[in-house]
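ok so I'm stuck.
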Amino acid sequence: MTSMNVIEAQGLVRRFGAVTALDGFDLTVPSGRIVGLIGPNGSGKTTALRAILGLSRLDAGTLRVADCDPWRDRPQLMQNVAYIPDTGILPRWMRVRDLIDYAEGVHPTFDRSRTERLLSKTSVDASRTIAGLSKGMQVQLHLSLILAINAKLLVLDEPTLGLDVLYREQFYEALLGDFIEGDRSILVTTHEVREIEHVLTDVVFIRKGKSVLAEFVDTIREHYLKLTTDAGTNVPGGYLSRRTSLSGVEYLYRDASRAQLQGLGDVGVPELVELFIAYMQSAAATGNEQNTEAQHA
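replied:
not stuck anymore, here's the structure
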């Protein structure tokens, strides 16, 4: 592992009987980046996270997280990694202030004042029990606790699952504010592409246990183009996907010549969700999937 990368995973394989959850999965999380691990349900996201957190063995591959072997060095790993799972795990019987006291007592790098400052921007009442908080408030509390730990890596597994739009926006606003103030790395798994696109610096698409795309968000404009044209227009081959919309027929290309497409219709940059759909489509829908995976797996 290099000092520039908080996570380096190469060729990870994890099998559960006849099911292969990770099938040669690769992932690199550079220091000081927000990386989105995006895939549909059942794609292997949670299995990858369990391996990264030292909660699951691997059948093959190499993995280093914060200069540790996650399985063998888990106590050391937990000093440098903070985690919010997709289901609430806070003790519902505790009061908020008692939970803050507990966190301060057990974690050597916990900053109580930071948690209190973050909570002051929410409607969470420190005198209430966690059971008396809404799901949105519980997530805000959990994030406030996690962000107060001086960890190299923050791992979030579907962190806004079940939250309404307002709470989701508040969550990502707090997350982005913390990232700008510090130098930690953040790994977020989700299948909700639109809600997370604005906070990511890097994106990895996972499908059937394989990484099929790893890209800097800023370079997507350099590599991808969307052509919208009329049905029946003769377009260059090699496109990632083709779909019909109210605007016409839309084709997505990687590393195509803008000049070659310019006279055929409207040319622009696709949204991240459009790329996600293109890479997740079946071979029957695209006619190009096998070639696409061969280039980017």
